[in-house]
Design brief:
Blueprint: H1 2-27, H2 31-39, E1 44-52, E2 55-60, E3 63-69, E4 72-73, H3 88-99, E5 104-107, E6 121-126, H4 133-139, E7 144-145, H5 154-167, H6 171-174, E8 178-179, E9 185-186
Parallel strand pairs: 3-6
Antiparallel strand pairs: 1-2, 1-5, 2-3, 4-7, 5-6, 8-9
């Protein structure tokens, strides 16, 4: 008798699952079911604090870690002995607005070290839809391609910066970036930008 109930239960569960998948296919998404599944995917973390445009703090199972985005540098807003740089507040706001309340997925790079000299994790930051936030910051003109250390997406990030320069996006339209000796750029302080 128990086997009969198990078979009936399994059959009912398959019918319900089939209905959910059919609905998802017809409606173009899983709706609330898909959103709930997305929120609880392993490897996704909640941002506990936005530090600036290229650094966040995430809650990794009860332990907060600062995460520095790989391959991108945004103008400074909080660096000691450094004035607020042109487009720094806008870059920080872009990162905060783009992530919002979403969870993020972090990915290391085989060519990069695990941590920087400030003991921050070095990671690519992805949104649940697969958007590479590091590259988007550069592509939208909120930050610079950061060529000072090797990383596997260097060519793509350089191309994103060139596209932003040509399109006069973000800081490329509002600031006067100064080339550095290392091949990157630095944004002038707000007070000296015109």
């Amino acid at each position: 008798m128990q086997r009969k109930h198990l078979v009936a239960f399994s059959f009912s569960a398959l019918i319900i699952l089939g209905g959910v998948l059919t609905y998802a296919n017809e409606s173009g998404g899983l709706g609330d079911v898909g959103n709930a599944a997305q929120r609880y995917q392993p490897g996704l973390y909640r941002v506990s604090r936005f530090v600036d445009g290229d650094t966040i703090a995430v809650d990794m199972n009860g332990h907060v870690e600062k995460v520095r985005f790989i391959g991108v540098d945004t103008p400074e807003t909080h660096k000691p002995n450094t004035p607020v740089q042109c487009y720094g507040p806008e870059a920080a706001a872009f990162t905060r607005r783009t992530i919002g309340n979403q969870l993020v997925r972090l990915e290391s790079d085989p060519l990069s070290t695990d941590r920087d000299r400030y003991d921050r994790l070095l990671r690519y930051v992805y949104l649940p839809d697969g958007t590479d936030l590091d590259e988007q910051i550069i592509r939208q003109g909120y930050g610079f391609y950061y060529p000072y250390f090797p990383f596997s997406k260097s060519a793509a990030f350089n191309a994103a910066e060139q596209a932003a320069i040509v399109a006069h996006k973000g800081l490329w339209a509002h600031c006067h970036p100064v080339p550095t000796d290392s091949g990157g750029y630095q944004s002038n302080p707000v007070t000296s930008a015109t």
